[in-house]
Amino acid sequence: MRTRFMTVLIFAMMAILSSSAALAQTGQVARRVKPKSNLPFDPHDLSGVWSRTGGDRGMGSRPGVNVPPMTPAGQKLFDASRPGYGPRAVPPATGNDIVGECNPQGVPRLLFFPRPVEFIHLPNRLIQVFQWHRALREIWTDGRKVPTDPDTLRWYGYSAGKWEGDEFVVDSFGFDDRTWLDQYGYPHSDQMKLQERYHRIDHDTMEMTVIVNDPKIYAKPWVSEKKTWSLLSPEEYSLDGWNALAEEICAPIDEVDNFDKRVRDPAGGVVHK
Amino acid sequence: MNHKFVVGLCLIVVLAFSISISAHHGTNISYDHSRTLVLKGIVTEFRYSNPHCQIYFDVKDEKGDIQHWAGELTSPYNLAQAGWSRRRSEKELQPGTELTISVWPSKASTTAGVVTKITNSKGEQILSGRAE
User: What is the CATH number of domain A44-267?
Assistant: First the structure.
């Protein structure tokens, strides 16, 4: 009996550790341990605080998967990117991921990061409030079309959304091309057309697919892995009894002046005198 | 095999792993995960700042010289969700506090590392962050 118990225990530990190792590698958050509720829901209501809990932090299920052929210009940009994640990772001290200096992540990258995002429906738009970097995004639902030739490019683009059946479809354009699609350094141009398709499949779960259409960089549209989002309860995301999103602002005074110079860069072999 | 020994071993392995994977934010590539250094140090500064908490500490090397180390920790949000609020963390990591700090050291052989475990003078593990 005791031998059987110990054998089961050892195998259980091995299973936990191997799954944890996988989680660590993909950046997956295993936060949701509560069983799914069977509460009723309105598929056209995305209100609430959600977190991307299923899928990888990149466009694909892992870096390099399902990437469309790149144009010569796209390949040149990809070759020039030096991310801190994935098979091409370099120490961030010698990389060129602009996020390391607290610059905006842009979308879709920010959508892939496993942190709470509040969806707020207003009569004329859907607001996404991202806890990570405290970014705010407006998705207009008043019938307007996204501009085809905006004068000013934006980190988060110009977005308009509408319902197609039970899918909330967001079209965006007008992006600043200095962001990457994801943490693995995949580029996009200022001509990228981004589409997100959200589908709430039960009270607690939403699916999201991202489609990148950027002929300057990719020879055909890039359809992401289907990502799963989970509805969070205040107990899951709140801190210190304050029922609200936390503030995770990347402030240069903390990150650039301290962490980067004093930890990140020395760790990568770049020592500031 | 002794029953208590196996249970204890499993708990130690899980605890060690739970903190070791708290490293994040794309800096993992900078550190040598195959080598753990266990350092006896004295805290000189602790920063509970987003998105990376940091601990700075002095370590006396074999020659008696002082090495200034910098350690990377997980984010305040992850620490707080694991019960390590700012006040509690700062109380444990006041300048002058003696600690045993395990790190995966920099591949560049500088005195920087990602912290995998911190133990106080009572032998208690502190600042265990949650995986991200």
Answer: 2.40.128.20
